[in-house]
Amino acid sequence: MGLNETLAELAGLQKKLYAFQTASSSLYLDATTTAPKDTAEGRGVALGILAGERHDLLTASETGALLDLLWSQKDALDQLHRRQVEELRRERDRLTRIPADEYTRYAMLTNKAGDVWRRAKEQNDFELFRPVLEELVAYNIKFAGYYDSVKAPYDALLDEYERGVDMERLDSFFATLRARIVPLLQAIGEKEPPDDSFLRRHYPVEGQRKLSDHLMQVLGLDRAHCAIGETEHPYTLEFNNKDVRITTHYHEDDVASSMYSVIHEGGHAKYELGISDDVQYTCLAGGVSMGVHESQSRFYENLIGRSLPFIQAIFPKMQELFPEQLGDVTAEQFYRAVNKVQPSLIRTEADELTYCLHTMVRYEIEKQLIGGTLQVKDVPEVWARLYQEYLGVDVPDDRQGCLQDSHWSGGAFGYFPSYALGSAYGAQMLREMERDIDVWGPVSRGDLSQVSEWLREKVHRFGGLLEPADVVKNACGDLDPTVLTDYLERKYRALYGL
Length: 498
Ligand code: ZN
Prior knowledge:
Elements: H1 3-32, H2 40-59, H3 61-72, H4 79-97, H5 100-122, H6 126-147, H7 153-161, H8 167-189, H9 205-219, E1 226-230, E2 236-240, E3 243-248, H10 255-273, H11 290-304, H12 308-321, H13 323-326, H14 331-338, H15 355-371, H16 379-391, H17 417-436, H18 440-444, H19 449-458, H20 468-476, H21 481-496
Helix pairs in contact: 1-2, 1-3, 3-4, 5-6, 6-7, 8-15, 8-21, 9-10, 9-12, 10-11, 11-17, 12-14, 15-16, 15-17, 17-21
This protein binds zinc ion.
């Protein structure tokens, strides 16, 4: 068989994987949007089979032979195909190291854990979730050994979400953030908080839907390729670079909630839509890592969306949509309100400054859980202690404490640092962007086209063609948390007159 035929087989394999993914994603989209309440069972059967087919296809000996054959000729491959083979081999290797029976039992466990976690959160009962969490931690420690038997277990898990990032780098990264953010937070706490009461006037859903339409237009999201829906928790789901869906959730007593969800998810969507055609239907399609993905969503949400020029650009439209609610408010007041700093209990509602501290709490706990120095039963206590230490808030119960996030119930340990890394990458990208182009003039006129183009050229188009660390380096140099802390200090000192 010649190389071209072998490459055609490689393309066929990846298209099949794409089809399984598309089918699973469609079911997820349906489940979270239009499916009636008691219909999960049938979808569960189909999803189980699709996951099994995917697993069997990747671990099949024919697939191994195909990938080995191509790897033996890697010098003859172009970058696009070499990276495909490299990534597929990595994925296959990872799957084959986990014994099939353990893989199945773990899949059943995470399936069950989601339900148990939801009930535990509803009933504010950590004891209900504890045994499942103990099992999840034990599995992840074991799997970490399969992924990489040399690395410390938590490093092996971190590598799954942001390749190249480990505890050594994160410890110093978070230490830098903490040393600068905690004192800034204390100084802000002594100042008069801005009035943000008008954000909680009554904002009918109909008007908010029109605001979403306007925001998508300003972000340059082509509605022929990106739809918006409504779900309990906002998310972005990508089928390919011509079909991306975002969702939001409207709260009639909080106009900023959906507004910033749309901008955040819109940032994720911009990334997916900006990935080049030549990696579509391959394993290199989609954003390269969670950290880089969050850098894009948080770039639009915070660096652009919570800037004064952006708010000045969209505020006339907001006043037109909500004349009674915002008629007596200025763009400047709105800017101060959406940047109000308030140490709080819930990560997803945190402001831009305190957000990193929320992820830091989770990082510290995961590190110790997977490292074996913290027992699951002690998580609530350590959670409360760290929230007091970092944010100065008392945790009244586990529902608003360690039961608030779904990540652990899905088996995701090592994911949380991606959020903070995303913020840091974003700040570095903004610095580079400001050196290359006039960012704020056009943004103040509601023109984000140059910003989009810069990100597409420097970040989006590659998809998984480059390693995550190389995408970051290529766009804005090596990870440097002081760029983020400098940005935060500048912004919040000015806002609070410090
Ligand atoms: Zn996100």
